[in-house]
Amino acid sequence: MQLRPIPLTAQGFEEFGQVVELAKLEHYAKQISINHGLTTRFHDLLNIDTNDQGGRPIVNVFRTSPLPLPHKVKVMERHPLGSQGFIPMGDQPFLVLVGRTAGRIEGRLDFDDLMHGDDLTLFLANGRQGINLKKNTWHHFQIVLNSTQDFIVIDRAGDGDNLEEIEVAGDVWIGDFNS
Amino acid sequence: MQLRPIPLTAQGFEEFGQVVELAKLEHYAKQISINHGLTTRFHDLLNIDTNDQGGRPIVNVFRTSPLPLPHKVKVMERHPLGSQGFIPMGDQPFLVLVGRTAGRIEGRLDFDDLMHGDDLTLFLANGRQGINLKKNTWHHFQIVLNSTQDFIVIDRAGDGDNLEEIEVAGDVWIGDFNS
Question: How far apart are CA B116 and CA B171, in angstroms?
């Protein structure tokens, strides 16, 4: 099974989290004029949700190299204790692979403990889009396409087990976008 | 009085906050290899301090136009309830004007309620440096030099009065860096 990417939109991604349209903030974010009109504050872009079990939000840079494609999707992960936001520092497109929300997957987990290709959705971010994954959203690790890229990442530090993984059944692939 | 900029360094800025060396993260930040070696996580770069009086951290974009220079410095501000971090999305240099820490200024405030030119330090950030102002640090509003720039800003939302201002006495100027 070959996953086919669809363009990332706020509406399409709503089940999994938020999209931050860096190139179109004026259409998507609350604007406040400050600093005597020299600065526009695009206000409160991410739902930061990191306080469970005494957690705290942290700011990091993720420097991610391109994933060699084609790539067989073997495992998905989720963070049950915190949201995780990614804001690209460059403008190269990247992929976002997510799985259906916890409730539906939990139902399936009782059955065979595996995720299946039709549980997955592959989004293509245009490079000027950030995302913020809701707590407990199944996702693949970052898939950068063309060159090494830096992302500002806002996620959680603190006690507790904040990583779960699930295997993906069968032959599920992401094709080579460069060929 | 003409303020003379000095290069921004972590050591020189320590009294006022942190410097995030985006071009030299490998020398300044804790590194964790994740995603099967494809990603380096430069971990926990900012001391986020926004919880006073029920505050919460928020992520914003500040889009700031250049400040016309020369500029007379008339007022400084501080946020008594929260840190404020600025991470540039581009690579243009900018200025950071800060005032001595609260304790020393408080002493002076009892005297004449004004800040003076020799309380101020003007830093030149190279465009690949972010900063995180400590709670209660006197600072000028953003001073962008060449072209409109976007910054990721991590600061505080919540109840309480999180803005104080103080007048600057006398003739204190920032010169024109373009002439």
Answer: 9
